Amino acid sequence: MVKDLVVKKRRPINKKEAKLINEGIIYSHGINISAKAGEYEKGISENFDVLILGGNIIALIMEDKIHLTVRGLLIHPVNQGWVQVDMGAVPFVCNGANVMSAGINSVSPEIVKDQYVWIREENHHKPLGIGRTIIDAETMLNSQKGKAVRLIHYIGDRIWAFGEKR
Fold first, then answer.
1. pLDDT of the residue at 165
2. Is the Cβ–Cβ distance between 68 and 123 less than 8 Å?
3. For residue range 86-130, what is the model confidence (pLDDT) as tens digits?
4. Distinct helix (H) and strand (E) counts, the chain
């Protein structure tokens, strides 16, 4: 069972925060989500801030960077910043394992070391999780061993389960 995520000081965002969120999402994902004051909520968790829409966490704010969660990626499809894993790696990622180089079969070309990325599966390109790269795109594709992405959030974890009714 997933331990509940505690989000404190939950409140609607203001105009200035909405502008910063839109700019952050454009910078990290290349899309505009058109966040408006009062439409989204911001909350504080133990290691990061969260952006909430309709009771679900759709983005994480870490180190002054905004990255969409799996639910956010499902609402707002993104075409850059991805690491694609083969179907054999999907169960491991969905259980919270770091992404290994051997399981990667394609990478968005702009990926660099220490970048936040989203992990997708090879058949339908659906998001499985988000993480931070340990190596760059070229090294991921050329290596057959070792960790490539340190997983931060994945389907089924406490960020994913935050908005679900019990």
1. 55
2. no
3. 999 999 999 999 999 999 999 999 999 999 999 999 999 999 999
4. 5, 11
**Distance (Å, whole) CA 48 – CA 161:** 16
Q: Look up the domain containing 91 and give its range.
A: 82-158
Residue 79 DSSP one-character state: -
* SS3 category, 77: coil
Say which CATH number the domain at 141 has: 2.30.130.10
Last residue of a domain, one of 53, 76, 99: 76
Q: Is the pLDDT of residue 4 over 90?
A: no
The closest alpha carbon to 155, from 98, 102, 93, belongs to 93
Would you say 134 and 148 are in contact if contact means Cβ atoms under 8 Å apart? Answer: yes
Give dist(CA 116, CA 68) in Å, integer: 10
Q: How many CB atoms lie within 10 A of CB 118?
A: 26
